[in-house]
Amino acid sequence: MEDEADALLARITMIRDDLNAGRLTREQVDCYRELGRRVERVTAHMDAAADVHAADALWRQGAEMIKAFLAEHFPTPTCH
Known about the structure:
Blueprint: H1 2-20, H2 26-47, H3 52-73
Helix pairs in contact: 1-3, 2-3
């Protein structure tokens, strides 16, 4: 799970770097912001989970959602 989280974080960090460098399209900027809102919701649910098992299940669902979102909106590295 830790390796998967590190890989997702690295991918999101690359996109954020592109955002900060002005290399994203307006649509990509909007998608990045939407991803941020979704991650915040998942994190809030994990924080409110009744136990570690529920939090882990929520993390797994969140990771799948993030991977699907990235595949749809940022299928390849965004550097131009």
